[in-house]
Amino acid sequence: MNARDSQEIKEYIASSWYSYEGGDNVGIHPWAGETKLNTPGPSRPLRLWRDSKNYSFLKTPRWKEQPMEVVLCRGLIVAYASGRTDVQELVKDTRASSTFPWPHLFSTLGRTAARGLDAALA
After folding, report:
1. Which of 15, 32, 40, 58 could staple 28 via S-S, CB 3.0–4.6 A?
2. What is the mean pLDDT of residues 48-68?
3. Burial label, 19 (beta-carbon count in 10 A; 0-12, 13-18, 19+)
4. Does residue 83 surpass a pLDDT of 90?
5. Cα–Cα distance, 120 to 122 (Å, whole number)
6. Burial class (CB in 10 A: 0-12, 13-18, 19+), 118
């Protein structure tokens, strides 16, 4: 990716607990730095936020309007494929102790699992 292509990166917040001044369906380049918390917070008594379309404190990265995976998962996949035994053993042990099917890794679940594996490796 060259510098011109990096201008095509945008972050979206339609499902996040943030708001953008220009509207929640507008993508903004990360350098614009707009992160305004917009969550009801817990009420008393505590209840689940089932009625909210928002569910995350993460932004959705897109490049040329296409959803993109960010670096963490890619780095683990490259480390695994290149033969790093510490990564391979951790993935094998994690996989053996979980019940979800492999295709489910290509989702929010997989990204969350990658964060946990990365923390364990650190």
Report:
1. 32
2. 78
3. middle
4. yes
5. 5
6. middle
Spacing of C-alpha 52 from chain mean position: 19
User: Phi and psi dihedrals of 114, rounded to 5?
Assistant: -60, -40
Structure tokens at 62: 């897109």
Question: pTM score, two decimals?
Answer: 0.54
Over 90: is that where the pLDDT of 89 sits? yes
57-84 in b/e burial notation, b at 16+ Cβ within 10 A?
A: ebbebeeeeeeeeeeebeebeebbeeee
> Which tokens is 43 given?
């009420």
Tokens 């305004």, residue located: 36
- The encoded tokens of residue 104 equal 């489910």
Residue 58 corresponds to which tokens in the numbers above?
């993460």
Bridge partners, residue 56, by sequence: 16
Higher pLDDT, 68 or 9: 9
Q: Is the pLDDT of residue 49 over 70?
A: no
- DSSP letters for 42-66: --SS----TT-S--BS--EEEETTE
